[in-house]
Every structure is written in structure tokens, then in C-alpha cells.
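User: ok so my PI wants both of these folded by tonight, can you help

Assistant: No problem, let's get them done. Here's the first:
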Amino acid sequence: MKRCFALFTVCLLLAGCLGSSAPLVPEKDLVFPFRGSTQMLLFQQDSRDPTRWETDSSALYTLKRSERKYAVFSADQQFAEVAFADLNAEKELLLVQLGIIGKDGETSREARYSYGIARRVDDKLLFAFPSMKDVSDALHERLWVKYACTRETAPLSGDRCRDLRSYTEVREVLTAAEPGYKAYLLIR
């Protein structure tokens, strides 16, 4: 469980500027790419060779549809909730909203929601939680200023930007991002 939680925490921390303190995806835009309960194995990009994927799964997750989102379980304990919306139907890209659940099974008041991009290819769900550095060069400077970003110097800290305040802002940044997929979930 600790390893599983650590992997999602890394995703959330690396998504520094693409976060909010409340869920922003409206119910009318939610989509459900999986039926019922779905099991997934997590695979990461090989740290020594970015053109390859690790051959051993690092974790098993179960997604269970719960009301208007999915509950994410590892070892029968819920630790996150995830919701999806169409980001670019032509490119088959999904917008991902991920929130970590507190120990009591509820979203805590201090909850953080991070936003990412996913693409389903056959039985794989590739995903990335981009930061402002992943925004296309043409829009980078304008969005950097708009979202009050600063460059962090500490290792792995990434860029820091103000919280996203609306679904429109989430879509604006993710539409401009060029995701580098570093992990995927194998759908079982």
C-alpha cells in the first residue's frame, strides 16, 4: 500500500501547477471509459532507457464506479477518486481529475486535486500529469504569467503556479500541454 500511495503522490507532486483545492470538472462533462469494476496493473517507463517500459508491474489497482466518478482501490482500501472528461475526442484524449482520499475514506478539507491527460490504446491507459513546462512553446510565456508561475530550484519540485480556479482554466492548460507519458495502466 505504501508503494502504491507513493506512486500516486509522485504524480500529484509532479503536477505542481495543474492542481486545485476542489474538484473542477462539472458533472455534465464527465465520461465513464470503464464499465463497473476494472482492475489495472501499473507499469512505469524504464528509468535507464526512456524508450522502454519496465516489464514488472509495480502495483495492482481496482477502479469502481461510484456515483459520478471512480473510486481507486489498492489492497481493498480506497485511497483516491478519479473522474474523466473528454479533452480531445478526435485524438482520443481524456482529461483526468485525481483526488487523494483521507484515512476516513472521505475527501479531506486539505485535499488536492491534480489534472492530467490519459489516452486509451487497446488494453492500455497511458497517462501523464503535465506541469507548466510541458505547455507548447507558443503559449508557454502567456500561460506562465497568467497562472503566476515560479521556477523552483529544489530537485523534483518542478514549477509552482497558483491553483486552477475553474474547469475552463484546467482545459486551457491541458489542451496546450504536450504530455510525455511515463506510465500506463494495463486494463485487465
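One down. Here's the second:
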Amino acid sequence: MRVVSVLAVILFLAGVAQSQFVYYLSPAASMQVPAEMMSWGYWGVLVAPFGGAFWALALSRVAARWGRRNALTAGLAVAVVGALVLALAFYTYSFPLHLLGLVLLSPAAAVWLQARFIATDVAPSDKRGLLLGLAILPMTLGLVVGSILLIQISEPIYQEGRMLGVSSSLSIAIICAIALALSQAGLRPDPLERAAIPGRYRLGKPAWVAIGLIAVAQVPLLPVSYFALNQGNIEGSEGSEGTAILVYALGVPVAMYTFAWFFGLLTDRFHRETVALGGLALQTSALILVALAPANPGAGVAAMLLVAFGWSAVFVAASTLLVDVSAAAELPIAQGRADAAFILVGTFTAAWVPWLSNTTFVVPALILVVLAAGATIGLRGNIHKATLSSALPA
């Protein structure tokens, strides 16, 4: 229980950290920051995701060899340095330092993703989904609290545009430092009670199905949200731009994280892949709804909620399934590959969505969702065998 409590605090801090970037990249913040500095943020789209994917793979190796606690500590230590370098870059208007800071800060994303698996490390097999969902829940509170604090406390410093970047970066450094201390002090004994020697791992088909589900869950989420915000679905009335931004920046993550416990409960009650397939069905409904009613404000909001709930169902169920079907020695490696795929697919989806007109994103998104569902259904027998095999004592 102590480990789960420490995990909850760490993920709360992750939500607060995420809120710093959500507001910093919003139009409200961009009006307060010099244009030449805001353009730096676009480099984060290129640098941070590839860095995050690399660190997800690297930290999984550290976890396999030296345990979960040391993997989180290593990633957070690098992230603290990166946040400090980023603060210095904003203060000195140094673009090279900005790029270096982004590279060094990228392990934070990998750490936040890897941290969720601590819940499955300590949970009995029939409670893995619920504990995973409950562990994600504190991120919601962190997002809300962090956004409120950022708006209230940081208001006076907006008069100096560069100080917004400095304050956000320093906030991230402090958050990562606190999470680092909590990881070292609270995750004892190490929740990952195994140590494998990193080598070449060949994951089975069921593990790749789970990884694919985690990655594909990202695909409908970003297009539906982007379409709802930019094609007139929820910003059609006068003065509604701020509301639209709020719904996207806070409403969707809140819907994604708040009900994670419910889908975790369903994951423990039914087969993991069944809940994942249900989540894909919700996301399919969202895509079809946007395609059929592209100018309906209510349809836009409903689609965003459906796609958020679908993401939560797939993410929780597939993350739990990955633990079930992976052997002990390969588990951290499989989790690292899942996190890397999650980061890269989300990034590529965000990159190509703005170039598509109207509802043309529905077709490729639907194809990927159908392929993921087909692979899951086709390999259900393999999944059940792998689940039983991994449950046997070594």
C-alpha cells in the first residue's frame, strides 16, 4: 500500500508538470511570449518525442537490470538537469541551450509512462487493472491543480515574456526533483522484484498485440480532438475560443484519466482483450460521429468524450494485458517498447492530422483501429495461452 501511495503522489506531480506545458503552448500564453521564443516550441515537437522514445527503451533496460526504482531515478535526474538548462535557455535567449534542454528533459515523459507499471508490479493478478486505473487517477487532480496554480501565481510574470518559460522550466525541475526523492525513499523494496540481464529479447505475438493496442489508442484521440477544435465543432459561438481550449487541454485528459479506475475494474472482471475491443468500439463511434455530423457542436463534444473514454479503456486494458502475457525476464523490455510506440505514434498522428482536410482523417484512423481489433480477435487463443503460461511459477 505504501508503494501505491508513493506512486499516486508521483503521478500527481506528473499531472502538475503536464499542466505547465499545456498552458505554456496555449494561445493565452503565446500572447504573452515574444514570437521568436514561441517558435522554439515547435522544435519540441521534433526533439522531445524521439528523445522520449529513446529514453523509454533505455530506461526499460535499466529497470530490467537494476530495478524499477533505479530506472525512475536515472530518468528523473537527467530530466532535472534538462529543465534547468531549458530555464537558462529562456533567460539567455539561447536556442542551442533550448535544444539541449529539450533533449535532456525528454526522459520525463518516459518516466511518467513507466511509473504506471509500478501498480501492476505490486498488484495481484485479479486486481491489476483496478490498481493501474487508480494509479492514473491522480494525474487528473495534478492537471487541474497545476493549471489553477499556473494561472494564479504566474500572472504577474507574464509582463516579461521570457520569464514564462523560465518559471515553467523551473517548476518542472522542482517537480522532477521531488519525484526523484520520493522514488528513492518510497519504492523500497524495489517493486520490480526481479533483475534480468539485458540481452536480445524476442517478444511473443500476444505482447506485440498489447503494444499495438497501446499505440493505436492514440490515433483516433488526436484527430477527433483537433477536428472538434479547428473545424467549428465547439468554437462556433462568439467568445468560445477559451472554452474550446479548456475542453481540449483539461476536459479530454480529465475524461481519459478520471474513469481509468472504472475501465480497470472492467478489465479485472472480464477478459483484458474484451475491454480493449470495447474501447476501440467507442473510438470507432467517435470517428463515425464526426464524419456524419462535421458541423454539429454537440456531436463534436460527444465525439471528444467517446474517444477519451475509448482511449482510457484501451490503454488500461492493454497495459494490463501486456503484464499478463509477458514473461518475468522480458516484462520491463516489453513495457519500454510499448511506451516508445505510444510516444512515436502519438507524435506522428499529431503531425499529419493538421494537413488533412475536413474528415479525411477518419479513413486512415478507422483502418488502423480495425486492423488492431482484427489482430486482437485473431490471436485471442494465443493471448489466453500466454496469460496462463506467464502465470506459472518459473
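DSSP finds 20 helices and no strands in the chain. The radius of gyration is 20 Å. Good luck tonight!
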